[in-house]
Each structure stands twice: as C-alpha cells, then as structure tokens.
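Lecture notes, part 5. Sequence design as translation. It can be helpful to think of inverse folding as translation between two languages: the language of shapes and the language of residues. The source text, in structure tokens, appears below.
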C-alpha cells in the first residue's frame, strides 16, 4: 500500500509540475517552434558556409590554391592546440600470428611517454619493402579487433601492402575510463570522446588533438619498420576512422594515398540532417573561419584521395558528392583530375564489400603502381582475444600509464604558471578584456538594453507571477518570470538555474523563500534553456549538439548565456528606475548556470550587489582532472585556462560579494 500511495503522490506531483510549466509558458505557440537557439545557430552556420563558398570560387591558380591550403593547415593546427614533441616510440611486438599469405603482429608503442597505443600490424609474406597503410578504427567498442577493421588489414596484406590498425583512445584496449572491476565504464563508443573533450577544450585542445597525434605517430611506427617503404604510405578508415583519415591526410604530407570512408559530406548537409557529431568531429571556430569538410581533401591536393560512401549512410551522400565535385575542380586546376575519385555503394553506414575492394584497388593503383581490379573477397576474421596486445586487455592497467585526463592535467599545471605570470604582468583592465574576448562576450557599449514585453500575470496566494519576454539583438527571446511579493523591497534578485526559469520555483522552494522575505525575483530561460531549448538534452553531456554547433562557429555557449545574464541584469536594475539610480541586483546561479553568473558579475561588477553560487564548480582546474565531468560540457570555454580560471573571476567581482553554498 505504501508503495502504491507513494507512486500516486509522485504521479500527482508530476502532473502538477506539467501544469505549472504550461501555465508559466511565455512564448506564443506561433513563435515557439522557430525560437530555439539551435535553429538560430543553423542560420549563422549557413551564412558562414556561403562566405566560404565565395572564397572557394575565387581559387583559380595554383598559387592561390597553395596559399589557401597553407592558411587552412595553419588554422587547423592552431585550433588543435599544436602537437607535442616526437619522443621515442619504445615499440615492441608482443605476439606474432602466421596466417595464409601474411602475418599479424600485435604491437605496442608510445605516442607520448607512458601513453601507449595498441595495434595489429598485417605484413604480407615476402621480402618487401611493402607500402604501409594505416587503418583508423571507427566507433566500435572493440576497436582494432572489430570485424571490418580486421578485413581492412587482411585485404591490404593479401594485395601486397602492410596495414597497421590501431585502437583509438576510448576504444579497444585504450579505454580511458574504467569501472571498479577494471573494465570499460561505458559501452557506448563516443561517450569517452565527449568526456575527454571537456578538459581538452579548457586547455585549448580537442579530443581530435590526441587522436590526430596517435595517427601521426602510427605513421612514425610504420616508417620505422624495415619492411615498410616510407615513401609509400596510405591511410584509410571508416566512420570515426573516416574522420581521422580526413584530418591526418590533410595535415601529414607523408600520406601518399588516402581513402576516408563513410564520413565526408559537407557541413551544410550535416547540419541540415543529423547535426554535429561527437567531440573530435568539431574543431573550434572552423565554420566561422571557412574550413568546411571538402577542405580536408583540398588541403592535400593533388595527392590521390578516394571518397568512399554508401547510399544509406547517415552522413549524407549528396554532401559527399558535393565534396567530391569541389575537389575534382581543384585537382583539375592543378592538372591532376584523375587523382581524386568517389565510390558510392548501396548499403547502410559502413564499409560494404565493394567499398573495401575499391579502396584496396585505389591503394594498389597509387602505392604499387598496379591499376588492377580487386574483386570482392570473403575474408575470415579472428577472435578478438587473439589480437590483444596487453595481458589484461586494457593499457590503463600497465604500470605508470598516463591517460588523456592525465595529459590534460599536466597541461593545466603548465598553464597555471602561465596564468599566474600573466595576471602579475598585466593590468586588471587588460585581463578583463582578455576574459571577455576568450568568452566571446561583446563589449558593454555593443550590448543594447533588452526590450520588455508583458506576457500575462498569474496570481498566487501571497504573491503574483508576471510572465515576460526579454528581446535582445541575438534574435533568441529570453522568456522569464517575475515572482512579485505584495510589498517588495527595493533590492531584487536575478535567478539563473540549469533548468531555466522554472528551476527552484517549486512551492516552499528557494525562490518562494526569497519572495517570502520581500524580494522580487526574476528568473529567465538563458538561450538554449526552457522554451528555447532544442529538446536534445543528455543528462551526462547536456545539450551537446547545440554546444558543438556554437563551438563550430567559434562561439562559446557560455558566452552567449553571459550576454543573456547581462541583459536580464540590466532589466532588473533599471525597470521603472532612473538611469542614475538603478536598484541593487543580487545574482543567484545554480549548477552550471553559476558559471554564467560569475562571468557576468566579473565583466560588469557594478551591475550586481552580490553573487550567490550553489552547486557550482569552484574552479576549472579540477574539472580538467575529472574522468567524469558530468554536465560540464556546455559550460566550458575553448582555451579558457590559457588566460583565467574561475577563482580569477571571483577576485574581479570581489571576494566579499561572492558566496558559495
């Protein structure tokens, strides 16, 4: 009976909360569908991609193309945070398996000191030297041992080329987060990449930084082998492996021949269809800069490149054909139109048998100078256990192994010294400007006061709630609520919460307690919250699609929300008040919204009388060290720790004005 009673109570509470949410809706139905932050960012992306297309059309001469390639490569490398120095690989073979016409070596090497890569090297029988093809795994939990990755290796070996298939971070034997039993914590294949992206972003890197470096060091390993011809290096991979192939082939000139599979499209088609994908597939500011997916091919022109696609892929094949057409024109202007091609085979996402045969044909054509048809072949794969390189099946069990979280933490420690020197050398106003620029917040004079619209009143027993809409020049409305006591004090509160304007608004909750003390409280939906949310939230990663679309545009989502907080703060301070006598505004930030609050107060300390932060991280330095930065993704800023940390913001506000609860 008790369990049934509690269930009924929970159901009633849920119905009441739904009723309250509906009752407190501010935007009209006709507007709500078109006001999500995501839809506005889509339009900004399309405009930026149009500008990039105009630039592309101006590439007429080899000199112009080369300058374009150089500019994009420099930008790409910079946005990845650069690469570490090349250190000894300390490679070793832990097992050799003799197969029919080839052998498989299970190998381990270090892409960075004590940061190990596990791989399988497929070597044809014979004397060599052989061309070497690096195979990047897609998002498979089993990494290099997945059937399609094995087939890549076997097919290359049977066609007279060596192949090295390695585990990416977060997959296979390279899980970076283990549970209490020592096994991978997450069964999904992209979750670790997202979580790695949080700390990587803060230190000015990207999950892609580590993946690209692993790919480049895998080439280093291949060319270190006496059986491999260092002048004949190929690169291929499917899905997430297609992403990495696209990156490495654009940045590493040693890649003679490349064949990215089931990835390349255009950002326009990606955004029109499935939207941004996982952490390493988004480079900070690349769309705003003019780096589209076709540019991964253009950056390597005129070196041979095959785009492999499938008709049923969720990476849109129409975008793949647009990508190919752009490449074909540039390769033609350079005099080598035959060096770029596209294969589209019917089937779903993945390497269909004919895709694999065509990729092998392409590699033979350019690496072996043998333009021979490669037939579809039945290839027998092995048990994953045969192909493991570590005794336990995970590199994190190796002595003194460093995870990506450790590498990011080391980078953060270096940046801490850099930040201290910067703050000691630069005046306060310079550092405030540095913070503003890094956060992507416009200057005070560029931020116009919001326009206010009354959306109706709701009466409560001891107070009333005014629904309102604040409109700024962002184009995304800010729905809000004013909880208004019968006889309010002159001071008022601005309340920011991860759940938007309804957060902490339950009966006898924190907002009602403030109202009971005689304070008017204004709560708002920051952009991407509440009524302007995309509906794509994830408990672990928050609204990552909106975050990464803003990221691609070089706009920290946090910075957009700081502008919202400043607009709302201005409204609270000056509503029905003269310009020379604003009311005192007390700012409350709950959860990650507290990071928005402390940024707003640091940039405009005169606007807020006090700041209360509840369940908010006290610093980003500790977030970098966390292997489970749950809910942190949409409130981190690319490269923030190169300039400041959250305690620096507290000092700008005044430690006497800030209280953590």
């Amino acid at each position: 009976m008790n369990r049934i009673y509690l269930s009924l109570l929970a159901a009633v509470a849920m119905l009441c909360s739904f009723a309250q949410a509906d009752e407190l809706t501010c935007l009209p139905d006709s507007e709500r569908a078109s006001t999500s932050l995501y839809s506005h960012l889509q339009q900004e992306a399309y405009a930026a991609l149009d500008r990039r297309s105009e630039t592309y059309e101006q590439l007429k001469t080899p000199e112009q193309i080369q300058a374009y390639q150089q500019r994009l490569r420099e930008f790409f490398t910079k946005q990845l945070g650069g690469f570490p120095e090349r250190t000894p690989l300390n490679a070793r073979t832990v097992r050799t398996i003799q197969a029919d016409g080839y052998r498989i070596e299970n190998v381990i090497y270090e892409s960075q000191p004590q940061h190990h890569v596990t791989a399988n090297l497929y070597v044809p029988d014979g004397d060599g030297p052989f061309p070497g093809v690096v195979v990047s795994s897609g998002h498979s939990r089993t990494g290099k041992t997945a059937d399609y990755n094995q087939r890549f290796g076997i097919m290359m070996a049977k066609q007279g080329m060596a192949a090295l298939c390695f585990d990416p971070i977060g997959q296979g034997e390279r899980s970076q987060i283990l549970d209490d039993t020592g096994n991978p914590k997450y069964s999904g294949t992209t979750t670790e990449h997202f979580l790695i992206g949080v700390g990587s972003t803060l230190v000015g890197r990207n999950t892609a930084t580590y993946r690209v470096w692993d790919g480049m060091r895998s080439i280093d390993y291949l060319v270190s082998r006496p059986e491999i011809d260092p002048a004949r290096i190929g690169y291929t991979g499917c899905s997430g492996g297609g992403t990495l192939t696209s990156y490495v082939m654009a940045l590493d000139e040693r890649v003679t021949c490349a064949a990215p599979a089931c990835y390349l499209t255009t950002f326009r088609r990606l955004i029109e269809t499935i939207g941004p994908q996982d952490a390493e597939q988004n480079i900070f500011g690349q769309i705003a800069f003019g780096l589209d997916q076709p540019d991964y091919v253009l950056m390597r022109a005129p070196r041979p490149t095959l785009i492999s696609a499938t008709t049923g892929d969720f990476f849109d094949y129409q975008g793949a054909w647009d990508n190919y057409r752009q490449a074909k024109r540039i390769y033609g202007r350079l005099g080598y139109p035959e060096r770029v091609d596209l294969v589209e085979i019917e089937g779903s996402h993945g390497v269909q048998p004919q895709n694999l045969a065509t990729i092998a044909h392409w590699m033979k054509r350019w690496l072996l100078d043998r333009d021979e048809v490669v037939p579809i072949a039945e290839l027998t794969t092995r048990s994953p256990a045969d192909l493991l390189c570590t005794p336990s099946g995970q590199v994190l069990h190796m002595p003194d192994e460093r995870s990506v979280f450790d590498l990011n933490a080391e980078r953060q420690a270096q940046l801490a010294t850099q930040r201290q020197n910067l703050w000691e050398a630069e005046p306060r106003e310079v550092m405030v400007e540095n913070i503003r620029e890094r956060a992507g917040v416009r200057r005070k004079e560029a931020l116009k006061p919001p326009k206010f619209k009354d959306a109706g009143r709701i009466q409560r027993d001891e107070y009333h709630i005014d629904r309102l809409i604040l409109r700024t020049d962002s184009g995304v409305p800010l729905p809000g609520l004013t909880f208004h006591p019968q006889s309010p004090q002159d001071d008022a509160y601005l309340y920011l919460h991860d759940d938007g304007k309804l957060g902490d608004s339950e009966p006898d909750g924190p907002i009602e307690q403030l109202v009971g003390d005689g304070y008017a409280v204004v709560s708002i939906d920051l952009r991407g919250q509440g009524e302007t949310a995309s509906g794509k939230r994830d408990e672990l990663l928050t609204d990552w699609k909106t975050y990464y679309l803003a990221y691609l545009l070089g706009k920290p989502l946090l910075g957009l929300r700081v502008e919202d907080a400043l607009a709302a703060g201005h409204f609270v301070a000056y509503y029905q008040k003269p310009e020379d006598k604003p009311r005192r505004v007390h700012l409350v930030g709950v959860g990650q919204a507290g990071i928005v609050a402390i940024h707003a107060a640091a940039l405009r300390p005169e606007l807020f009388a006090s700041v209360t932060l509840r369940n908010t991280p006290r610093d980003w330095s500790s977030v970098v060290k966390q292997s489970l930065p749950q809910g942190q993704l949409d409130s981190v800023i690319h490269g923030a720790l190169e300039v400041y940390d959250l305690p620096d913001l507290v000092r700008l506000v005044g430690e006497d004005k800030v209280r953590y609860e």
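The translated text above is only one of many valid answers, since several sequences can fold into similar shapes. The domain at 426-660 is CATH 3.40.50.1820 (Rossmann fold).
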